[in-house]
From TrEMBL:
Keywords from the UniProt entry: Amino-acid biosynthesis, Oxidoreductase, Proline biosynthesis
Domain Pyrroline-5-carboxylate reductase dimerisation: residue ranges: 116-220
GO molecular function annotation: pyrroline-5-carboxylate reductase activity
Organism, as annotated: Sporomusa ovata
InterPro entries for the chain: 6-PGluconate_DH-like_C_sf, NAD(P)-bd_dom_sf, P5CR_dimer
PANTHER family reported in the protein's UniProt record: PYRROLINE-5-CARBOXYLATE REDUCTASE, PYRROLINE-5-CARBOXYLATE REDUCTASE 3
GO BP: any one term: L-proline biosynthetic process
Entry's EC annotation: 1.5.1.2
Descriptive protein name: Pyrroline-5-carboxylate reductase
Enzyme class of the recorded protein, top EC level: oxidoreductase
Keyword Glycoprotein belongs to the record: no
Length: 223
């Protein structure tokens, strides 16, 4: 307690004392703890799952049809207070139950409630998306160093540019198309870069990556 948290000796003890139970483990092993959770879960407990691919019906088959299940797809960026949480809830979850979970999640990011039918699809646009940006950054930095830049300097410039671009998308009031068009000046460097990326299949690569991400999420739900 002195450090701000309490350690329990078993899953049963933890679940019995929690109003909201957060489960953040892989789909491959989640079934192995369901019996421990079920034995300790009360009718009022909210079950918040961060496990990709496992649907509400699967949980209610193991925990009871009246179980209050909320599915959540988080992002690693919650670690810096800028998370993006996509959530869907069972019909048994009341508005008050949902508001408590929303309050908890929104302490470190935004919360968007979506239909459960899109919980696998959303992984590709929030849960896995940070890795797209990190991968792109790594490629850009490698090229920057090759051109002669100091890596730390190039990282600050590129990361700040991504941060500012995201802020404009969220708060400028302009659509993504308008923002892009502002930079697509005829004969300019940006248009030349985008045309080259398009010629090499950049858009296709992104779309196929998104499809692969969704497909894998659905596979995990069947394990």
């Amino acid at each position: 307690m002195e450090r701000g948290y309490t350690v329990f000796k078993s899953i049963d003890d933890l679940v019995k004392r929690a109003s909201v139970v957060v489960v953040a483990i892989t789909p491959q092993v989640i079934d192995s703890i369901m019996h421990q959770i079920r034995n300790a879960l009360s009718a009022e407990t909210v079950f918040l799952s961060l496990t990709a691919g496992i649907d509400i019906k699967w949980y209610q088959e193991r925990l009871g049809k009246s179980c209050k299940v909320i599915r959540c797809m988080p992002t690693i960026t919650a670690q810096v207070g800028l998370g993006a949480f996509a959530v869907s809830r069972a019909e048994t979850v009341s508005d008050n139950d949902y508001k408590e979970v929303e309050r908890f999640l929104s302490s470190c990011g935004i919360v968007e409630e979506i239909p459960e039918s899109l919980m696998c699809e959303v992984v590709s646009i929030n849960g896995s998306a940070p890795a797209y940006f990190y991968h792109m950054t790594r490629v850009i930095l490698e090229e920057a160093v090759y051109m002669g830049f100091n890596e730390s300097s190039a990282l600050r410039l590129f990361a700040q540019t991504m941060k500012g671009s995201a802020e404009m998308l969220l708060n400028s009031g302009m659509s993504v198309e308008i923002l892009e068009d502002k930079l697509r000046l005829q004969g300019g460097t940006t248009l030349t870069a985008l045309d080259k990326m398009d010629a090499l299949g950049f858009d296709c690569c992104l779309k196929e990556g998104v499809k692969a991400c969704v497909s894998r999420c659905k596979e995990l739900g069947k394990l």
